[in-house]
Design brief:
Layout: H1 7-30, H2 36-54, H3 60-74, H4 93-108, H5 112-134, H6 140-149, H7 151-158, H8 164-179, H9 188-204, H10 212-218, H11 222-241, H12 243-246, H13 254-263, H14 272-280, H15 292-315, H16 321-335, H17 348-353, H18 359-376, H19 383-392, H20 394-404
Helix pairs in contact: 1-2, 1-6, 1-18, 2-5, 2-6, 2-7, 3-4, 5-6, 5-7, 5-8, 7-18, 8-9, 9-11, 10-16, 14-19, 15-16, 18-20
Length: 431
């Protein structure tokens, strides 16, 4: 009996993946930089094509958790209080967007697996444009193209339909507001808008808080930093206290909702070092959330992750803010015990805008890992037998991430090394 459920389906998926990978590699080698219009058309075409060949895959979170959250928000029910454990753990920003998706599904009979992926695909097109704005002028069009064709970004938006593209759209918007133009000409209005944007990113999903140190370092004065934090805090508090109005949260339940938001973490053992420990000491899948061994791994992972991020930010504290954002997200990938494949997209826009010597290698390794998970593993009959080895292969991804860090770039010259100025560090970054 074949291990593959449908070989033709697999062949179609891999063909589109190979097309993306080939465009990425040739784009790095040739320094391709088409116009923004052409790049966006290529990005859209690849994502639609991937949706057509792999859209029959139904990720549990997209198909069940996201749909339930949208239904609850549409019917004015709190999506956290009306979801099973770990089903929804966020402020209502994305749930309200999903409510619109559910409305379209019901009113126009658009299949959920289509309508729920349209938003992430369109958000990703916005990220493509913003990546170019963070890159040096001579590299701007190439950076856009490389992000547009990256197989990882195509898979996360078109197959997984995840929140990551919207988080990155808001977060990169904050960086563009702060970094574009002269440092001395930074206005209070732009700082406040940047604070609001990073708050919206965090409200969609909490991980964009990783980028806050980089944003604060990018600001020239403590007054600007207080303004950004104040604007961010104001938006987050407003979104939380208005939950009784937006999604019907009982006022008496707000402390419980806050506890759920702060206590959320994914299942451990699905990536890197923690997967090795679970391979050596297997735990039944039904017991993963409550098993003392996995809880211990999760606690250790939290401490390691916080230590790794703190150490990375300190080591690169004088680096360009885009590099700090990249290493902050990368430190999480290296140290965390709780992981999802989509998390690998967090550092990619920053790494693409300001590539280091081995960024191309990291992009390919991560894309191969994601492609194996999204496109191959989902068609295997013996998925459970192979899954532990797939998870442990994340150690190769970790190694590629470490190699690709901008080790040689630890000093930022604010007036001479900003988007909009020449940046020799980018020259020759391709393989």
């Amino acid at each position: 009996m074949s291990m593959i459920v449908d070989p033709l389906d697999l062949a179609a998926r891999l063909a589109v993946f190979a097309l993306c990978a080939a465009l990425l590699l040739v784009g790095w080698r040739r320094g391709w930089g088409p116009s923004l219009k052409i790049t966006l058309l290529v990005a859209l075409g690849l994502r639609v094509l991937m949706l057509l060949v792999a859209g029959d895959f139904k990720p549990y979170d997209l198909n069940i958790d996201f749909h339930r959250a949208g239904v609850n928000a549409l019917e004015h029910r709190d999506p956290i209080l009306n979801a099973p454990q770990t089903g929804w753990n966020y402020l209502p920003t994305y749930a309200l967007f999903l409510a619109g998706n559910v409305f379209v599904e019901r009113q126009f009979d658009v299949p959920w697996m289509v309508v729920s992926r349209i938003g992430p695909i369109l958000f990703d097109l916005g990220v493509v444009a913003l990546v170019g704005l963070l890159a040096a002028p001579s590299f701007r069009s190439t950076a856009r193209f490389l992000y547009a064709v990256n197989p990882l970004t195509v898979l996360v938006s078109a197959v997984h339909g995840q929140m990551e593209p919207l988080c990155l759209l808001f977060a990169l918007g904050a960086f563009v507001l702060i970094l574009r133009g002269e440092r001395a000409a930074l206005t209070t209005r732009r700082v406040l808008l940047a604070g609001m944007l990073i708050a919206l990113a965090i409200s969609v999903k909490t991980w964009p808080a990783l980028f806050l140190p980089a944003l604060l370092i990018a600001l020239p004065t403590w007054r600007h930093r207080v303004q950004l934090v104040g604007a961010m805090g104001g938006v987050l508090v407003a979104l939380f206290v208005t939950m009784p109005l937006t999604v019907g949260t009982p006022v008496s339940k707000l402390p419980d909702v806050m506890s759920v938001m702060l206590g959320y973490h994914p299942v451990v053992g699905t990536f890197g070092w923690s997967s090795v420990l679970l391979w050596l000491n297997p735990v039944p899948k039904a017991e993963l959330l409550h098993d003392p061994f996995t809880q211990t791994i999760g606690t250790i992972g939290t401490v390691l992750t916080l230590a790794a991020i703190s150490a990375a930010v300190w080591w690169w504290r004088r680096a360009h803010p885009v590099d700090i954002a990249m290493v902050s997200a990368s430190a999480f990938q290296v140290a965390t015990a709780s992981h999802g494949v989509q998390y690998l997209e967090w550092a990619m826009p920053y790494a693409t805008a300001r590539p280091a010597r081995w960024t191309w290698l990291m992009s390919i390794v991560i894309s191969l890992y994601a492609g194996a998970g999204y496109l191959v593993m989902t068609l295997l009959r013996n998925w459970n037998d192979i899954a532990p080895y797939y998870y442990m292969s994340g150690l190769i991804v970790v190694a590629a991430i470490v190699i690709a860090l901008p080790w040689a770039r630890r000093q930022w010259e604010p007036e001479g090394d900003r988007p909009g100025s020449a940046e020799p560090a980018l020259v020759g970054a391709a393989p």
